[in-house]
Specification:
The structure is a single chain. The protein is mainly β and about 375 residues long. It has two domains: about 130 residues, Sandwich (Immunoglobulin-like), CATH 2.60.40; about 220 residues, Glucose Permease (Domain IIA) (Distorted Sandwich). It is built from two helices and 25 strands. Strands 10, 11, 14, 16, 17, 18, 19, 21, 22, 23, 24 and 25 form a twelve-stranded mixed β-sheet that branches. The N and C termini lie far apart (about 100 Å). Keywords: Hydrolase, Signal. This is M23 family metallopeptidase.
Length: about 375
């Protein structure tokens, strides 16, 4: 009787095990992190989050990234997703000679994915990230085995409250092209600077303001002459009542754009002014005209006060004003933080981040309001400030 009972129990246990769902073996290879917690900024009526997801391969085999999904941590809803070429275009491998994300992430390597999300209101309380990848198994003797699919979820982050910094115009009138594009490999959005033992991204929300006319031209006459740029010498204005935290003048500029040399690390911003806004944030102006600075470190300024002139110093492809806000005064030593301009007029856009100086910009859609308040301009929008 006992052997028959034990046999029945064994059959029952085997049946239970067969019916139970199988669980994938845990994957201990990929570390996910969001070093800088994002806060939404307003862009043409939308809530936008800009942040970076860092992926580090802690395994012993290369990992080929296949897809990324951003999830609402509350209910698991997919808020955005990328795969294939769309995913590769959003990333770079830190320190690699060819930093494209298309190749496998080698053991010990770190990739950074640059994310921009337009999210509906109300903003999700927290986000999670799901990464899908294939891991190449190594056969004995170094031969490559099959590719095992895997996925990992993590890097949960609760967005901070919306940026509260509302700034006056840094320039007068217009039209001004607000030049930036998240997808540019060497654009502000993607360039880290490692100073004092920490890598930072000062230009996360940076804008290059380039003066254009109704036909989209950026210069009068010979465009290779820096002084012929439409914006060259335009007054640069304090965006708030503030204290000058740092300033530099005396760096020269080339008369011709084509003759402009490369500058070393410290001189890349050219002549600059950094204004302490009183809350741990700093407004940074770069590439100012030599001899144009009208303020000194420690001086108090009033919003709208002229602090310098638009120029062509430092690493610059042409005369323009570089503007960003960060949590440190030196131009390359802070983390870029969000902000908004109190008011500007939206005139149009350069679609696809191309055509600047070569063809007219496209007028704004009639269903988009011309007067914008408490917003950042969209990528490559053409705007006008009050005179």
């Amino acid at each position: 009787m006992l052997p028959r009972l034990l046999a029945s129990v064994l059959v029952f246990v085997v049946a239970l095990l067969a019916a139970a769902p199988t669980r994938a073996a845990p994957v201990d290879t990929l570390d996910l992190a969001v070093p800088q917690i994002p806060a939404p900024v307003a862009v043409e009526g939308r809530q936008r989050l800009l942040y970076e997801l860092h992926l580090t391969n802690f395994g012993a085999a290369p990992l080929r990234l296949q897809a990324l999904s951003v999830l609402d941590a509350n209910d698991g809803a997919v808020l955005a997703s990328w795969r294939g070429d769309a995913l590769a275009a959003r990333g770079r491998v830190v320190g690699a000679r060819d930093s494209a994300l298309g190749d496998a992430l080698q053991p010990g390597q770190r990739a950074v994915l640059f994310l921009e999300l337009d999210l509906p209101a109300p903003m999700p309380k927290a986000l999670r990230h799901r990464v899908e990848f294939s891991a190449s198994a190594s056969a004995p003797g170094g031969a490559s085995g099959g590719a095992d699919p895997g996925q990992v979820e993590g890097a949960q982050v609760a967005p901070l409250p919306a940026a509260s910094l509302r700034l006056a115009p840094p320039l007068r009138g217009g039209p001004w092209a607000a030049v930036y594009a998240p997808q540019w490999p060497r654009g502000h959005r993607r360039v880290f600077y490692a100073l004092d033992g920490r890598a930072r991204l000062p230009g996360r929300y940076a804008i290059d303001f380039v003066r254009v006319d109704a036909q989209g031209r950026t210069a009068r006459g010979d465009a290779d002459l820096a002084a012929n740029a439409l914006g060259y010498g335009e007054p640069v204005l304090a965006v708030a009542d503030a204290v000058v935290a740092a300033a530099r003048d005396g760096i020269g500029e080339s008369a011709r754009v084509s003759a402009h040399p490369r500058h070393d690390f410290d001189r890349a911003p050219g002549n600059y002014v950094s204004l302490a806004l009183g809350d741990g944030r700093y407004a940074v102006y770069e590439h100012l005209q030599p001899g144009s600075l009208k303020v000194r470190t420690g001086e108090r300024v009033r919003r709208g006060q002229v602090i310098g002139a638009l120029g062509f110093t430092g690493d610059s492809t042409g005369p323009h004003l570089h503007f960003h806000v960060a949590d440190a005064a030196p131009p390359l030593a802070g983390e870029g933080v969000g902000y908004a301009f109190e008011a500007f007029g939206l005139l149009g856009h350069y679609p696809g981040a191309s055509g600047l100086g070569e063809r007219p910009w496209q007028a704004r859609d009639k269903d988009v309001a011309e007067r914008r308040r408490d917003e950042l301009p969209e990528s490559n929008a053409v705007i006008e400030f009050a005179r």
